[in-house]
Amino acid sequence: MGICSAQANCTVPDNYIVPFDADPDIVLAAFFIGVWSTYIIIAWGYFFNDRISNDCLSDLDRWIRHYSLTLPHHIRQWIFKKEAQKWTGSSTALIKICLMISDQQLVTGTAMLLIGFITHCNIPQYYFEIIADYGWVTNSVYQTSVMVTYPIFQQNPAMRHWRAAWMTCQAGFIFICQILTYHQDWLYLFGTPTRCIWENMSTGYTKGSQMVQLIITLSFQVWSYLFAMGIFYPRYVGWTTYFLRAVRYILRLPTRFHVWLSRRWKRPSRLQGCVLATTYAIFIAAHMMSQIFASSLLEIIRAFAMLLWGFWWITGYRMSDDPSRVEAMQGGENEWSTGQMMPLLMLALPLFTAIELYWDNTTEKPKSEDTVDIPLRTCERSTIDSLLCSTHSLISSPAASLLSTSYTPRIISSWNLDAREVFEPYCHTRGHDTDSLDVEPCRPSLSGSQEAFFQLEYLTIEKLWFRVLLVVVSAMILGGFITGALFGYVI
């Protein structure tokens, strides 16, 4: 690099030892406490905060949150034999606390990456790897936190701008870090200056499998960034929804095919019945994947895997017995110096600020300027409309036009629900005859809604066995992410 004052020594010594000075100022304890605390608050907000906007939730998320939000009520009723009170102040406090602590991770992670790039001339690859991993983990945690803090940005759009700028800088740094760390000579010797990779970029990507992994990782990184920016600026990044629509169309092809066969074969033979069973199984698999991959739960799982990956590999680097680290390091990196103690002591600031925020929002009457008071869609299951208003939902939203706002889950939750029960409230309110299953009188106002597909998809997600299957598959995905994190590959 031209900005470096002297030529770096990138030759490999005969003893494979490149001496470097230990840096005790990279404090792992403060890092792990900060990111894990942020993740715990995000996960708590996902399951127990009733003020999360439906714009960030899918149908699977709503079903999970329906039970998690009522869990404290049942526990309190079981233990204290009394009704649980709804503490809106604690929900507001949690959003503000999550915003504060996630902002700290955003700024800290970006600052660490900036320092790594400024000192790239002399910083060993060992320490640059730790900084890059740290920045990647904080970036993943912050993007997940937007789901909880989204109501504040809805109320105060101006608060988005500086955070979007920092997130853009961080995403750019991480993009470059990914290219560096996928170089075939990366960490060949822990003490080699990072600058040596910059000077040999053209010769370090000769393996095809390595390039494929790099392209996949960068693609997911760009998509994750665009998704987060789409929440901040939906008007300008809304073009990404065209890709989601294409994915939704592909995932709904099994639904269309199964419905078409079901209408064509009114009285199926044994062979036709086997074909219908096969198409139904394919539909179940596609519908299940669409529900999981459109949910914020998947982002929660991915963030957990990222944290586990960061903890596993950063700690592994620090405890490595590789001779290029143990014999080459001059000094100790675990000494309790000012650089070690200061970050730990500074954790007291967000801790006491969080306590004050919680205290102010739960003991005093909320002021209009201090509360997150915006018209959010409720997460109740009292209407089907609440299941269709989400931008994450893969159910066709035009089908909402056939539903009455007074439609209750007492009918929806029945095990075998037919077309009459779905269309009856809409037809009844408009004076149509509903004694038969014919929905043609309702069809003029349902053009393009594809009500049969909507019916099949919605009735499926209402079945208990399908929900159990969703939970099992989500647990398997969590296990897959954890396994990938332990083996060093997460996206």
What brief labels describe this structure?
491 residues, 2 strands, mainly alpha, 20 helices, 1% strand, 2 domains, two-stranded parallel sheet, Elsinochrome_Biosynth-Asso
Structure in words:
With 491 residues, the protein is an all-alpha fold. The chain folds into 2 domains: 22-232 and 301-376, no CATH class; 385-469, no CATH class. It is 64% helix and 1% strand. The chain has helices spanning 28-48, 59-80, 88-118, 125-155, 160-181, 195-198, 208-232, 234-237, 241-251, 253-264, 270-293, 296-318, 323-326, 338-346, 348-363, 385-388, 409-412, 419-429, 451-461, 464-486, and strands spanning 20-21, 329-330. Helix 1 (28-48) packs antiparallel against helix 12, helix 10 (253-264) runs antiparallel to helix 11 and helix 11 (270-293) packs across helix 20 (464-486). The model is unreliable at 366-449 (pLDDT under 50).
